Each structure stands twice: as structure tokens, then as C-alpha cells.
Amino acid sequence: MTLDGKVPTGTLAEKWTKYRSTVPLVAPHNKLRLEIIVVGTGLAGASAAASLGELGYNVKCFTFHDSPRRAHSIAAQGGINAAKNYRNDGDSVRRLFYDTIKGGDYRAREANVHRLAEVSVNIIDQCVAQGVPFAREYGGLLDTRSFGGTQVQRTFYAKGQTGQQLLIGAYQALSRQISLGKVKMYNRHEMLDLVVVDGKARGIIARNLVTGKLERFGAHAVVLATGGYGNVFYLSTNAMNCNVTAAWRAVRRGALMANPCFTQIHPTCIPVSGDYQSKLTLMSESLRNDGRVWVPKKLEDAQAIREGRKTGNQIPEEDRDYFLERKYPAFGNLVPRDVASRAAKSMCDAGYGVAPTGLAVFMDFSAAIERYGRSRASTLGIANPDKQTIIELGERVIDEKYDNLFAMYEKITGENAKKMPMKIYPAVHYTMGGLWVDYNLETNIPGLFAAGECNFSDHGANRLGASALMQGLADGYFVLPYTIGTFLANEIKTPPIDTNLPEFAAAESETRARLLGFLSINGKQSVESFHRRLGRIMWEYCGMARSAEGLTKARKMVQDLYAEFHSDVFVPGSMDEYNPELEKVARVADFMELGELMIVDALHRNESCGGHFRVEYQTEEGEAKRDDENFAYVAAWAYHGMGQEPELHIEPLNFEEAKPSARSYK
Amino acid sequence: MKITLKVWRQKDAQSKGRFETYTLNNINEHMSFLEMFDVLNEELIQKKQEPVAFEHDCREGICGTCNMVINGQPHGPMRGTTTCQLHMRHFKDGDTIVVEPFRARSFPIIKDLVVDRSAFDRIIQAGGFISVNTGQAVDANAIPIPKEVAEAAFSAAACIGCGACVAACPNASAMLFVSAKAAHLNQLPQGKVEAKRRVQAMVKQMDAEGFGNCSNVTACEAECPKEISVVNIARLNREYFSSVVGSETVV
Q1: DSSP assigned state of A525
Q2: Cα A169 → chain centroid
Q3: Residues facing residue B46 across a β-bridge
Q4: A65 vs B87: CB contact, 8 Å cut-off?
Q5: Quick check: is B250 in a domain?
Q6: Residue numbers of B between 197 and 226 with CB closer than 8 Å to A
């Protein structure tokens, strides 16, 4: 089946403006009669719930956390993009649009991306009005910095805690609506099923995580803003509790999952150190503004470092290979994430890795410290500063810019990265794939919307840095409040949804049976141990490099693991109590099904693009080789269960403005 | 490393709690404190016993979910560090470590080490926001804000809402949390407009939640994983009195 993205007519630059002035509206008195469920309180969910409440809708908002402020958007470090052009460096809506399409390797929908670039400027205004303390220059105006895949400085930031500050802004807007009674907040409630009545999304089944009871909630429309699924790899930069369950339960009710194999491997994470490890920690991409990535030129130097006989500082300048600067002179250290990750992997595969595991490269700040130190000395009027003074002053500038990142690195590794080059390696960070949505952010189930990382829409096959925060807030503040009207305008005569309908009863009893089923297996292995094994399969065969042979093997491995899981997992405790293991088991079961679908998707896409690198499809220089003739489309899958063949639906991608060309950063 | 843990176990809010002792023989010094708990729980599950309930999420020190009292100190012995960022290299082989939940009347225990901190949400709902609707904003550079002011607001806004300040305080006072939010918003030109209303409303809600009074012990600052300064408390006191005395806006 071919899917209709419902892209409005008109030229690309006019579409959104025209759409906004012609889209059906819901009158204020009717908004008061309509209810909306928002699941998730990250940037997309909190901003959507707050904005919809402000408009007059009655919102029920859900999070499995103890507070809406804990959502994982809080951990985003580096910044948020916006086409403000405050720096007069040639930025524009058009350029942000183009960078995003190219960065996504021509696998995103043009109209959505252009809209994203248009509203990006409003986001910064809104956040400043809410009191988000962005970094400022001495003149009192906003500061910006660079991120990967761009040649302008359009990234606004609040030290290394941009996500936290933006989320607190959205959380506070949400809190205001809660106090006004327009949003009813349900903390510690996890969505475990979607309720579809007469083909429309009309509610959810959620488990109260404190009492363990299943509860029914009805509404005229449901918005999922439940984040990405990077934890399918077990080790990722996602928070421990990030999961795919809400989105996946929607898939099991008929929603389509688009481009699930598009996952982002972030180049600069703290390397894995041992088997006990529970998660990986990101070092913000913003560090690549000042950090130069290198490995030793000589294999014997790399080996000496791995064995602890030498340190990075002992390698003289001429024996260092700044491989990103060498391979990609136009963008240097700020090439997009997929490109930087693959380059680091290929250096390590060739034997140049610098950690005992062989899996790490250096990111070095000494040149930046010296440059900043000289500049600061000059500002302070210190003539002929000595080396010591320069370094002290330079380190102070680095602290101002990145602050908590260096402290975090030191806490985890015990090393000071201002004195000793940082060791980094790629790790799973973000998922571009997600629920298929049209231009209205509506899934193929009428009344079910998806916002933020949970949908697939804006980043194609690779997301540019500082664009996740932009998309989450764009969807929640400026897109959904308009587009949800296209559905709700036809619902003004629908009375409040009755949760005694048979569809609610059926969904509740199916959910109960599923949970009781897990409890009754009473096997020998922990949920965590299955999750780790799933992660290893996914990382090995569906991670940075994929092949038809490996993927075929991996699908069988996931199916076998799924069968073993259903016969030998052990879940302690009972259903009617606070039971974290029961929460986890349902999430891991969903991850396994998703894992199978990711493998199927990766196997079907016989090309390399963005984060999806199939070893069979590469250029002579080892760059990704796209196939626009056969794969310039969104692959949206209907999933029917483990071992069954999922059904492929296609949305062709048409490029009117940004004509696909070879994606070069050289 | 060999580590002996004395961990608070409590079935639910109604039950009585007690300490249980567990010995772990193979702890790696590079593990985080919570990864040690993962190891403990894996062992308990292998023995078909109930694992220790504890809260955690980002494991990078920013979400504010983790909340253990370790040897009497919220988030343990390292300054400016959350439990999830505490590593075992800071303990010695053979150590006995006592682990309890954050204890305060306003943070009732849900299970084992898990407590209910929703009182903090209700304080923010009372006034910890700027009343601006989506779409009402002027251009972001329309109002210049001196760099020092923006940085001072940022320092206060670094609070992660974990509640260590309450757990550290002998009176279980929430003054550091409340004052940090007031200092974040009230210093910015956008937040000044409703500053008086804000401090009154937040203080009123703080009292209603049953948090204790501040008696200048300053343990909150010492234990705060984000090193939020008690200067914020002095500022809040000033703002509160000036907003009540001789003011027409009393919430």
C-alpha cells in the first residue's frame, strides 16, 4: 500500500503558512468539551500538554516517572538549533532546512523539515520568555556555537545542560496548566495498551506503578510523546527506563512503524569499561567545536598506549593522525555523527584504538586551551604571558563553555580531560525511526498522534546534533496545537468517551493476561540478563555495520531468544504492588519484537544511507552508497508478531527543493 | 572488592522497615554505586528473592531520580555528586556501607529505598513558573540580560529536584529547593513581573506540604549534588518579607 503523507499543496516555503490559515479550527467553547491524552512528559509531551491546555482542551498527561521533570530530554547536553541568524553568518530557514535534509541523507519528508526550520525561531523566543537561562555574550544578547553538519553557528545552549533547562521550561509551563486545572497529571502511570474504538484512538490502559492496578482512561484523541527505542541495544546513552512500550503497543494495535533500522550511533561517548556496565555516557557533540579527534599514526604507539606504556600526551604532534580533519577538510571535526562514528570505528578496526579494549580514539583540547588562553590574556592586557598562565586562563574558558561535561568525564573515568586527551568511542544515542505520521503528525490510526523522537518524521537516516531538542519543542509548542485540530474539528459532537465500552474492557483484560503470563513463567533467568543478550545481538549485527548475512543470522537469534525468554524468565513479586521487575519484563518483550522488525527493515534496505550502513553498499573510500532509484521512500511496517512476515507500506519521498546529490563533507 | 551492605527494606508505606545485610564479594572499583546494586539484585533474583527497590534513571547525574542516603549522607560521600555518579573506587575493600531512603515526613516511603517526592511538583505548580502562553513571546534578543545575571539564574536553575537538601536537613526543610527556583526566575526580567506572587505562593505550598523550617544549618548546600548555594535562601527570605510587608499583593 502507498501511504499519503497529506503534504499541503503550494511551494515549499508557503505550505505551512497557507496550511495554518486554512486548517479547520475548533472554537473555544468546543475545546472545553474535548479531551486529549498526552503520554510522556519530555520536551515534546510537556510542551504539547501545556500548549493544548492553554488552548482550552482538557488534557490528561501521563508519565511513568515520579515527576514529569525526570523525562530523558533532561539529559540532552549541547544545544538547540534555530535559524535566527543572530550571528550574521549566512544562516536562514532555507539553510537549516537544507542542512537537515542533507544531514538526513535525503530520507526525510521535505515539507516537515521545512516547517521545522520555520518554527525553530519561535522556539527560542518562547523559551527565553519562560525564563530559560541560555548562555549570553557580555552585551546581554544570546550566544551560539557550532554543531556537526553545518557551517554556521546556530546552536543556542545553556552550558552542557541545555536539555535540562529547556525541559524545566516546558515542565514549568505544564505545572502552570496543572495548577489551572487544564491538565490532570498522572505520575507513576505506565501506558500498557492503546484503546481503539470504531477505528479511532480513544484511550489507553495504564498501570498505576505504585498500586499495580490497571486503570482505563478515555479521550477524544491520544498523543504519544514517548521517546525513542535506543535501549533495544541495552547499552546506550538513553536513561535506564527509556523504552518502546507505549509506541510498540500502538504498533500492535495497527499503527505503522517507519524506518525502524535508522538508529544514530553518536561518535563521542565514554568507552565501555566492563561487563557490569549498565549504560553509556555521552560527551556532547559541542565538544567537537574545540576538541580535535586523533589516533597515533604509528601502530606501535597505539599498542603502547593500550598497554599503558605510553600516554596520549607523549605522542609528538607529527605522529598524530587527526583523521577527521584529514579525511573531511571542509567540515573537519564537525562532520555529522554517522560519518564521524564510522571513521572512528574504521581507525579502531585498523588497530589504532587507544583504550585497553582497542575501542577508543582521542579527543584533544590542548590546542583550544592554548588558543583561548592567549585570547583571554590579551583581553586582560597581559603582555607576553608564560605557558602556565596561558593554560590556566584557557582552562577557565573551557570550564565556562562546557563546565559539567569535564566534571562528568572525570567522575566516570577518574581522568582530567583538560590535562590528558579524552578517550571516546561511538555508542547508540538516538533513533530516527519511529511511528509513521503524516504532515499532521497523525499516525495511520485516526486520532493517534506521535510527537518528538517517537515519530519518524524529520531526521531521515541521520539526525544532526542539536536538532532533537528543536524537533521535540517544535512538535509540542507549534505544530500539534494546529494539526490536532484537523482531527478534533470533526469530533465536536462526540460525547466524553465512556471507559465502560467493551473495547476498554477487552484491552484491560488482555493487558492483565499478558502481565500474569510473565509472572507465571517462573523460570531461572533475570529480565536484565535477557535484555543484555538482546543488546549484544543488535549491536553486533544491526549496529554500525550491517550485512545481509549477519542480519539473517541475527533474526533467527532474536527469535530463539524470544522463545527462551518466554520459557525461562523469572519475575519476582506480584502484579498488585510496586514491582520494577514486572515493568521491565513487559518492556524487554516489546524490545525483542521491535528488534526483529529493525533487522527485517535493515535487511530489506539494500543501500547505505546515514546511520544505516550495509557493508555491501559502500564506495571505494568506504563512504555510504545510497540508492535513490530504489530506496527513496519511507518504509512503514505493519507488525503481526514474532516470526511472522511484517507487511511493508511505502511512502515515496519527492524532493522539490533539495535535490538528492552525493552527500559529501570533504 | 568485598563490600557489606546494610540496606533498608520496607514492603510498603504501611509496613515496618528493617535493615538487611548483604555481602558482595566481586565488586569492581570502576563500577558505579548503582551498578553495585544491579549486581546485588541479580544475585537476589538468582536466589528467587525479592530485589531491592531503588529509583534511578539517567545514571549521568542530571535527572534527579536516584536518592539514596549512603552512610548517613544523601548521595554519599563525594561532594557535588549524585548516587548514580558515585563510583566504588571511593570505597575501600572490606567496607560496610549503610544505605537508607531519603527520610522526611513530606517524602513518604513507597517501598525499600523509593520515596514519594511529589510535594516538590506541587510547590512548582503553586508558582514556580512564568505565566506566558505559547506564541506570546517577543523576539529572544528583545530584552538584553547581563551575562552575570543570566549566569546567576543558571546556577540556581541547575537544581535537579532530587530532594537531597530535604534529606540532609535536620528539620527536613525544603528551603534550598524553593529558594533555588525563586532565584532562577526572579532574577530574570521575564520573571520579575510576578516575583512577589511567586515567592508567597511557593512558600505557602511548602508549608502546607509539611516541610520544616530553615534554621541555617546549611547541610543542604553541603549535600546538594549540584552545589546550589544557601545564598539563595537568604535572598528568598528577603524577597518573602518585602513581598508580604506593606504589599498589596498577598496570595
Answers
A1: B
A2: 19
A3: none
A4: no
A5: no
A6: none
Closest CA to A456 of A592, A610, A593: A610
**10 Å Cβ neighbour count for A474?**
28
Give yes or no: residues B71 and B121 share one domain: no
> Mutate which of B57, B67, B78, B86 to test chain A, going by most A C-beta atoms within 10 A?
B57
Strands (E), A542-590: none
Whether residues A187 and B46 touch (CB distance < 8 A) is answered with: no
* Res B250 pLDDT > 70: no
Q: Tell me the C-alpha distance between B58 and A72, whole Å.
A: 7
One domain for residues B239 and B128 = yes
Over residues A425-452, the pLDDT tens digits come to 999 999 999 999 999 999 999 999 999 9
Q: Which of residues 108-147 of B touch A (CB under 8 A)?
A: 110-111, 114, 116-118, 120-121, 124-126, 128-141, 143-147
Does the distance separating the beta carbons of B145 and A72 come in below 8 Å?
Answer: no
Q: Cα dist. A206→A45, A71, A167, A187, A583 in Å? A: 17, 18, 24, 11, 12
**Per-residue DSSP letter, A318:** G
A155 vs B contacts (CB less than 8 Å): none
ipTM, 2 dp: 0.98
- Please give the pLDDT value at position A662: 86
Q: Which residues of A touch B34 (CB under 8 A)?
A: 278
Nearest to A66 among B30, B62, B65 (CB): B65
Which residue ranges form the domains of chain A, and what is each CATH number?
Answer: 12-77+161-264+429-488 (3.50.50.60), 268-427 (3.90.700.10), 502-631 (1.20.58.100)
Q: What is the pLDDT of residues A187-207, one digit of tens each?
A: 999 999 999 999 999 999 999
